[in-house]
Amino acid sequence: MPLARTFLAAALITQASVLATTVYLHRVLAHRSLTLRAPVALVFRAVLWVMTGITPRAWVAVHRKHHAFSDTPEDPHSPVVLGFWAVQLGNVKLYRDTIRDGVTVTKYSRDLPPDRLDRMLFDHAFTGLAIGITFLIVVLGPVAGLLAAGIHTVVYLGISAAVNAVGHTYGKRPYENLATNNQWLAWISGGEGLHNNHHAAPTSARFALAGGESDPGWWLIRLLLRTKQAAVRHEELKLKQPA
User: Fold this and answer.
1) pLDDT for 62-71, tens place per residue?
2) N or C: which terminus of the chain has fewer CB atoms within 10 Å of its end residue's CB?
3) 98: helix, coil or strand?
């Protein structure tokens, strides 16, 4: 079993999932900061289905609630309220508890009712994950495929948790909110580590707002804009909070 190929496959899958999360789930659906042409949106939906099993409207609902009650007792995953390690290690449970409360998804994702493809495919998380894992096993072999899937799962969930935990605990706060900027985290999370910037300008499709900041998710968006596969909501920066 060539370990280098296994780790490379895990890294590629994780980064594809990270980019699909930050561009499609976060910027397109949760904040409507840009729109995508239907075929491109379908690709993002398929990637998330087979690589993460996430239901978009559930993810969006939790994130919108986070913005509505950021770092208060109503926030689904605030390290300020719950403690750093409770979020970093328990982010998945906090997410699942929130989407199962019978209120959050209905209230915060009213604009994302399930369509025919959701009912047929994308709402069936385990089916999507089974397809993704089977593909890895076919391509890499059973042991390497399962190992790559396991590494991807741990790293992807760890990055997602770090955005919530690290991104509200450690780092710079150029704007007046409790989120923080960490460029190192932005590099591995598709730009999500520039979390203070995002809370200051939540409808901006670009998270890098100052010199020296880099937002890998924005690089992908720029490619989509240049190929006329996407359109941003507004070109000018609209700050919710002052510097």
Assistant:
1) 999 999 999 9
2) C
3) helix
Per-residue pLDDT tens digits for 184-231: 999 999 999 999 999 999 999 999 999 999 999 999 999 999 999 999
Q: Which two tokens stand for residue 52?
A: 């993460």
Query: Is the pLDDT higher at 233 or at 240?
Result: 233
Backbone φ and ψ for 197, nearest 5 degrees, come out as: -60, -45
Q: What is the reported pLDDT for 1? A: 57
Residue type, 184: W
Residue 32 one-letter amino acid: R
Q: Among residues 32, 6, 11, which one has the least CA distance to residue 154?
A: 11
Asked if the model's pLDDT at residue 92 lies above 90, the reply is yes
Cα separation of 84 and 206, whole Å? 27
- Residue 137: how many CB atoms within 10 A of its CB? 16
